[in-house]
């Protein structure tokens, strides 16, 4: 009789624990990154009244007779399935779309590392990316992520430019401007002028006999090296004073004129000097010069002037070199572009990419990867221990953490401006609550019925 009492009591305790878990799940239905738990029961010891026997010549075998002694808690398992996504459009809100965990720490040396799926981060007064409880978020090198909003990007001087677009064959005076940066970040504007009528060869010119490399002519044919070429004079002037800077006419002797060289299809070939600057049939030679501007308080601004100006990325030697300057019979639209050089700037904002790169955006238009958010993964995530505050800690059964970054291996990607919500399924929890309540009621009835039988036993002697 006492066995049924103890069985009922054990079941009440087990159902009470299950109800505690269900209540916690429902309480955290709106907790960011929360992972629901589920309870399973197991049978307690069984008392053997009679063991099993084997069969004999005249009698068959018998099964064991056992009386169970109730139920016990088998496990409380954490469900690590991904929760639903909630858009927030807040730059510091992050969601891991995969199996990775964010890494956070509460000490200066990042010796204590904890793991979380809750990406509702923010910046503190020192620019550290922190959790809602102030723990610092770690990067791929286990260093706290800090966004220094006072960070500056130093100025760099321009040393490479390009001329991109078309120069109308019939336009005799066309100018495009280029802004150049000095080592202090100040801007200096120059005019690149294409002046005068095109000089033409009049007769076919054989490049193999001159100083121009025929490989820079798109029409070059090893069997036919002679083509009709035309030339447009190039000058560089100061837009404020109109002074010609290059070719420099004040030197002794004055610098020789520069010409942009085009083939009969309007494709740029080279920047050249002509043996006779007034005769398009004279011998062209490759021109390469240096424009140097003396700027008080800054380094000299030095700019190489050669055929590279007419090729994409300012590089005529690349295997896939592309000409970006033409002379067609259409509207002139050539523009000067400075390929490098920039003014000084400070961080104005930042964003976080899907791979966890924290990208600083500077006032001068530059962008720089400041740090990259680190992630951790485990062979057995359910083996992690909950610590409260949306934190997990590794255990011997979770396996050793593997560290990496979003987008690599099994870490998943990061969705910025979004949060992973709780994975609690309310319909499932309410169903479990009903079965738990009925199980508790049924076992309460077992206890009361056992008590009534004991009462009858006590009342036998009257």
From TrEMBL:
Q: Where is the Flagellar basal body rod protein N-terminal domain?
A: 5-35
> Where is the Flagellar basal-body/hook protein C-terminal domain positioned along the sequence?
416-460
Name the domain of life this protein comes from: Bacteria
Tell me yes or no: is Flavoprotein among this UniProt entry's keywords. Answer: no
* Annotated localization: Bacterial flagellum basal body
- Domain Flagellar hook protein FlgE/F/G-like D1: from-to ranges: 95-163
Keywords, in A-Z order? Bacterial flagellum, Cell projection, Cilium, Flagellum
A Pfam family annotated for this UniProt entry: Flg_bb_rod
This chain belongs to which protein, by name? Flagellar hook protein FlgE
- Write down the species: Fusibacter paucivorans
